[in-house]
Write a structure and sequence with these properties.
Elements (H helix, E strand, L loop, with lengths): L19 H23 L12 H9 L6 H11 L2 H22 L4 H8 L3 H9 L6 H14 L2
Helix pairs in contact: 1-3, 1-4, 1-7, 5-7
Length: 150
């Protein structure tokens, strides 16, 4: 009978970043998902110049037939969102930067990415461009880090 085991060494100080940082990333990503829904609702009343694309594309976005891009959502929330919305946007941007730093300090990154179902090449690209982190990927990674207690 073959049994597979994963042996994890005891955590050291570099791996002990779980806590406040991870909680901030998780909260910011979840808040951002809520903001995306709010941006979709606000798109109907947003001026056309806030949305990217041709006139037909803008019309479809306003009707909800076409998904808003991250840039569209940011433009809408910045222009007609509340101060709280803008604060949450800033927190998400900061969380994206923190996510890259957090993963650089994680020694068992391959295991974390595999369990979070995030391709390694995507993580590698996001080292240089943290603004590419998607909220659902951030949530999945933080939850795996919690499970593994890294």
């Amino acid at each position: 009978m073959n049994t597979n085991f994963v042996l994890l060494s005891s955590p050291d100080e570099d791996d002990m970043l779980f806590g406040e940082t991870d909680e901030q990333i998780l909260t910011a990503a979840r808040n951002y998902l809520t903001l995306l829904d709010k941006a979709a609702e606000l798109a109907e009343e947003a001026p056309d110049d806030l949305l990217a694309g041709s006139a037909g594309t803008v019309y479809q976005k306003k009707l909800g037939l076409r998904a808003l891009t991250a840039e569209d959502s940011t433009a809408i929330l910045t222009a007609i969102g509340t101060d709280e919305d803008r604060r949450m946007l800033d927190e998400f941007r900061q969380a994206q930067e923190t996510m890259g730093e957090r993963l650089q300090n994680t020694k068992r990154i391959g295991l974390v990415l595999k369990q979070a179902k995030v391709p390694y090449d995507q993580m590698y690209k996001r080292k240089d461009r943290p603004d590419l982190w998607k909220p659902d990927q951030m949530i999945a990674i933080v939850e795996v880090l919690r499970q593994l207690q890294l």
